[in-house]
TrEMBL record:
It comes from Sporomusa silvacetica DSM 10669. Pfam families: HATPase_c, HisKA, PAS_9. InterPro entries: HATPase_C_sf, HATPase_dom, His_kinase_dom, HisK_dim/P_dom, HisK_dim/P_sf, PAS, PAS-like_dom_sf, Sig_transdc_His_kin-like_C. SUPFAM superfamilies: ATPase domain of HSP90 chaperone/DNA topoisomerase II/histidine kinase, Homodimeric domain of signal transducing histidine kinase, PYP-like sensor domain (PAS domain). This is histidine kinase. Residues 144-350 form the Histidine kinase domain. One of its GO terms (molecular function) is protein histidine kinase activity. Its EC number is 2.7.13.3.
Length: 353
């Protein structure tokens, strides 16, 4: 570009070698005049694809109004600072980014200089931190109250069963059944709470295992579940290295993820369960072809009692995140209107020998 020859040598060095993505663009529509390597790397473009194009043409800002707002702020104040927005890369990745921008003059003409800060990892860790804080809180609460609640429930349930057999209450069988099933529901919420934390000693046994064998053992159960929902279940399970597993917990996690997949699909939908090795991890994928996760709750997934279902408790994913955390595993979610995929990355078990 001609303009590059007229840039001060020192500025040019700072601009080109800066680890922050930077761009010089036209004030009117943001047409890129010059960009640095960090910007090209971050957005996965090569220079020829970017120079002479506007962010709008490249679809860089997920919400195109944000780009307009930045230009408006620049015209009103002469600069903009810490403008946070979502940026779309050429490879489809979406990044959380913060922009600073101000006027610079080259050959007597004003241009816009923008500096971008990629804060995707920071946002991710913040969310993860909040999730773990929530789990911790639930852990402390549930350990304290679960016994106190379970004992009276057991007593009341016992008496209800005793009275429902009496001929005097024969006409009220339905009510007794309803009361017992409501108590069972309350009990299952407590059981789920205990799954979120590790306060139940049953859930603290971890042994080195083959994920394939575990998944094969629960296949008939999942297949019956699929049949009941008139959905199809496809198993693509590979031979993978052993991992440290608590079988009860992993079963629960798979059931919860599979159940959510079935819930999200209309009749006749296909749910895929697969495993493979990726670097030093074994990856378990539960992929549905449902309607996708509601955008409003996407960054809050795993928060206890978060549900969009009439009959959901909103504990299923909180349980999964708790289990993943105890297995040193990470859960990644991708979702669109064509379906959702939950990926659980387990670290491969390493022996010291
Ligand atoms: N595969 C999926 N497709 C679409 N939405 C999903 C999927 N998995 C989870 N969700 C959304 O996340 C919410 C929380 O899921 P979670 O499993 O924690 O609770 P739930 O399924 O609503 O209730 P339950 O406690 O019975 O599992 C769901 O209500 C749903 O909106
Ligand atoms: Mg669920």
């Amino acid at each position: 570009m001609r303009i590059i020859k007229n840039l001060d040598e020192l500025f040019l060095k700072v601009f080109m070698s800066n680890p922050c993505p930077m761009a010089i663009s036209e004030l009117s529509d943001g047409t890129y005049i010059e960009v640095n390597d960090a910007l090209l790397d971050t957005l996965s473009y090569c220079k020829e694809e970017v120079i002479g194009k506007t962010p709008l043409e490249l679809g860089i800002f997920l919400d195109s109004i944000d780009h307009k707002k930045m230009l408006q702020l620049l015209n009103a104040h002469g600069y903009f600072k810490s403008f946070e927005t979502l940026v779309s890369c050429k490879n489809g990745n979406i990044l959380n980014a913060v922009f600073n921008g101000e006027f610079i003059t080259i050959e007597g003409r004003p241009y816009l200089l923008t500096v971008m800060n990629n804060i995707t990892a920071k946002r991710h860790y913040e969310q993860e931190f909040i999730r773990l804080e929530n789990l911790n809180l639930i852990g402390q609460m549930s350990a304290g109250i679960s016994h106190e609640i379970r004992n009276p429930i057991t007593t009341v349930r016992g008496f209800l069963q005793f009275f429902m057999r009496k001929s005097a209450y024969a006409h009220h069988q339905d009510y007794f059944e309803l009361m017992i099933s409501e108590l069972d529901k309350a009990n299952s919420i407590i059981t789920n709470f205990l799954y979120i934390t590790e306060s139940d000693p049953l859930h603290s046994q971890y042994i080195v295992q083959d994920l394939k064998k575990l998944l094969e053992r629960i296949q008939p159960l999942l297949a019956t579940n699929a049949l009941e929902k008139h959905n199809r279940l496809l198993y693509y399970i590979s031979d993978t290295p052993v991992i440290l597993i608590n079988e009860t917990e992993i079963r629960q996690m798979v059931f919860n993820l599979v159940q959510n997949g079935f819930d999200a699909m209309p009749m006749g939908g296909t749910l895929i369960l697969k495993t493979f090795r990726q670097d030093r991890h074994v990856v378990l994928v539960v992929q549905d072809h449902g309607t996708g996760i509601d955008e409003m709750i996407l960054d809050k997934l795993g928060t206890p009692f978060l549900t969009t279902k009439d009959n959901g408790t909103g504990l299923g994913l909180a349980v999964c995140y708790g289990i993943a955390h105890r297995h040193n595993a990470k859960i990644n979610v991708t979702t669109s209107s064509h379906g959702t995929s939950f990926e659980v990355h387990f670290p491969i078990y390493q022996t010291d020998s």
